[in-house]
Amino acid sequence: MYSYYLTIVLAPLFAAIVAGLFGHKIGRTGAHLITIGAVGLSCLLSFLVLYRMYWGGAEPENIGVYTWAVTDGLHMEVGFLVDRLTVLMMAVVTFVSLMVHVYTIGYMHDDPGYQRFFSYISLFTFSMLMLVMSNNFLQLFFGWEAVGLVSYLLIGFWFKRETAIFANLKAFLVNRVGDFGFILGIAAIVTFTGSLDYATVFGQAGDVAAQSIEVFPGSPWNAMTLICILLFIGAMGKSAQAPLHVWLPDSMEGPTPISALIHAATMVTAGIFMVARMSPLFELSTMALAVVIVIGAITAFFMGLLGIVQNDIKRVVAYSTLSQLGYMTVALGASAYGAAIFHLMTHAFFKALLFLAAGSVIIAMHHEQDIRKMGGIRKYMPITYWTSLVGSLALIGFPGTAGFFSKDLLIEAVKESHWHGQGAVYWIAYLSVLLGVFVTALYSFRMFFLVFHGEERMDKATKSHLHEPPWVVTVPLIMLAIPSLAIGWFTVEPVLFGGFFGDAIVVDQGRDVLANMGEHWHGPAALLMHAWQTPVFWLAMAGLATAVYLYLLRPDLPAKIKAKVEGLYNLLDRKYYFDDLYIKGFAAWGRNIGRTLWQRGDEFLIDGVLVNGTANSVGKLAVVMRQLQSGYLYTYAFAMIIGLTMFLGWLIWFR
Amino acid sequence: MSDYLLSIVIWLPIAGGVVLLAMGDDNDSVSARANAMRWAALGISVLTFVLSIGLYTGFDTTTANMQFVERAPWIDAIDVWYYLGVDGLSAPLILLTTFITPLVVIAGWDVIKARPAQYFAAFLILEGLMNGVFSALDGLLFYVFWEAMLVPMFLIIGVWGGKRRVYATLKFFLYTFLGSVLMLVAFIYLYRMTGSFDMAGWVEVPLSLAAQKLIFIAFLLAFAIKVPMWPVHTWLPDAHVEAPTGGSVILAAILLKMGGYGFVRFSLPMVPDGSHYFAGMMIALSLIAVVYIGFVALVQKDMKKLIAYSSIAHMGFVTLGFFIVWHMSGESGAVLGVSGGMVQMVSHGLISGAMFLCVGVLYDRVHSRQISDYGGVANTMPVFAAFMVLFAMANAGLPGTSGFVGEFMVIIASFKANPWFAFFAATTLVLGAAYTLWMIKRVVYGEVANDNVAALQDLNSREFVVLGILAIAVLLVGLWPAPLIDMMNVTIEHLVEQAGQTKF
Asked: pTM above the 0.90 mark?
């Protein structure tokens, strides 16, 4: 299937190049036809590979494509590793990408950068596929940075807006902080294993875990712990885990289709995918897993809280994404990699749906994004309304939806992960994901009610134009609503308990929570029947009820509550002051250092004192010396006599 | 013909330059005569490049021996030879030189109004001399090329430069000349020890540790100034700011590489114990270059200064890669570091050249290098903006571009040496992106800032060709560096072996 893999990867690249370089020649229609055709082909072939691998029993493949470079015994290759984990990601990425491509026709209809946009999203698809299909760390890093590049280009797509170009720079730099750790992790892997190839590295994982490295004098670290934490720093950047989460809400400055594709469904899940891919390494370091689970828990709960106070429709969904990524990270830390990937998949569908629905509202509202100026849109946009409802229900894990299966079992897995002991780590993780359910339901339906129900708060002109967007927008909504509603039912059993991933994910026997849960698994229907017995269900219902009460029944209350808890509100409104710390703290601090080094170090000390100082000294010395070179014979004769006397004197007295 | 290939790539451009000088300028920059001069310069530089491809196709990647060797007596009395040859260290740099020179000629095409024939002649002569430096195997011959090179560069900055060109060019000349004088002293010492100027002999001759230390310091000053390493770097921003675009390109792309080349051709193999002794200091200076200069680049207001500082930071990777050789605990890692440094030199030649050309494109239109005079260039120059963002990303070391290859290899190798080396080196991921992309944000993106920007015309076909060729080169090396690395591997393995041996 080698030719399939090449086609899957290269078709979007080809389309991106054509649409990017020859966009003005092929025109708007040409640009969207070629990119949609290419991504459609990739999607079709990805599903074919998925089919062959799952139902056809095809073996995982590890194929080299070409040798990037060889030196010093280090083989740097480009190649594909396609196993069950990869193929699932390929299917998700290409499917969501295809939907977003179609949707873009409607959303970017009037934009002068139409061809450029299609070129970028196709390039993104290529980059993401390179990332998930890689069989080595070099290509992984290539894909990792390439998706970052496209994200940068797309956040700043409307490059005239100051907020957009601020956001894209911020996104790139914060990601680079993560990549800083990531590349050191890769360097550590090469140092200990001498290879970049996954298979070789995994094969030596046991030996590496037995070694230690002295990072600080006198404090040896387990080599595997160091490697995994460094790699996870990369994941924190890309998957926007606290404290490297600050870029994701700002990335909403980009056009909505990419918020759906890149900043919700695919790119931000790269970190989750990477950790799952590296499960043979992470499983060897409980220390690293503890870090993973705590970071994930903090992100899951605290970022969810921020969603409650946001008023920008896209930012609410963005904070929800942060929180859900935190859930996935918690699952990784609990060694329930399968649950993380399963939630990644369902989340990709319903979060892409929510973003595209938000985009649909934004189009209808003439690019108004403030939910305080919406309300009662339900009757103008029925398709958007119903699909949004599906997405929101899936997000809060309403029984039967895709999100129910993935989130319920994810939380169950965290609860069962006794290996961390019953210590602080366990309770932080479990309580965060549990309480997060209430928060999720509250912010989701706060937004839902403020947008679709209640009083119509928009101005007259906007209201008169409110209508459902064209089919290119609504069809992707429906296409995404179907899996959001139904996919959990069909896939939960094989993916979580049927050994779907095979050898792609390695879990230490002693803490394989999913295997333990599998022993009590009686099918999706049974889970559904017992849903009402779990705290997860009641917390979600409580959140939903709170939203109903506050935003439908007593819309006067939120303002009063806000006035009562002003301190807390400000803390949330300022996003825990992370942005202030980074912008007024680190960024300003960096510029000050630069200025000091430049003006005091370079200009004053090196140039002023040393370089020009030397030149000046030579000049001054020359002034003195010039006095001696008077040209008068008697001066020279006098100097000779003095010199001679001194020389003779030295001979007499000291010898 | 391949027997004389090196002589041809040295003397063909020099002879061409001399002819151009002899023909001279009239006072009209658009006359038929001036045009003929331009075409002649382009023809000669392209021909030189085409011929130099023979150095790649005919190169034997399986040997560390010198290839394309030419040897003839020059000054019998003191045993000086006209002795040329290339190996995996020098051949890529010669190719870089012959590749960049035609681009510089095209870039200066109708921009240079004053005395075009002399301008192009200076670049052709400079090209020949630079090729001479990279291929000389006789110490004195090397020295002659090395110093002669200063003259055309001195004139290029001094004649066609900006307002403070005289200050800058004197600073450049005195700074670099001061360094090379001590190198000459070391050469004479080595000549006394071996009785010849044969550089291969200098590698073989046993030297005491004390002598090696002194020679290392003498070399260090010459090479460190050229690279330039912190703290002898302050001539570079001034020289760049005042140099005409073509001068900046050659300065950044090739002249700086002389310093790096000097370390691997002279310091490492000739005084391995001296190099070993000072390796810790060299690593520290390299890391200071990466971190300190990274911060300094962040606050620059002048685009050329910013790129000049970024050059210094990137060259820090070159010296870091070279001097971690002695910190490897196992058997591997050293070759990776040196190869990384070498790749970084070639890549930096392409990227910094391209960045200076981009600034030149803007300068030719607006006559300002200040970041604050721009904003929203992408609105009026979309094609140019695409190129500039690409090169900026390459400058920030994005995988898929050449800028990534060397940095990646050096970071990996330095982790082997000591994780903290890698830690400081990897700060470039953040700093490099910060200073480069912040500049892009302020210059390329945003609303049209002023009338000058509103009146900008996008790239003409001449500029498009130059930037397009560089873009292809940057991507090619980034996506498939194997041909370049294969060319150097065996030579570098041999070099690492030499560097690991004790000579006293």
From this structure: yes
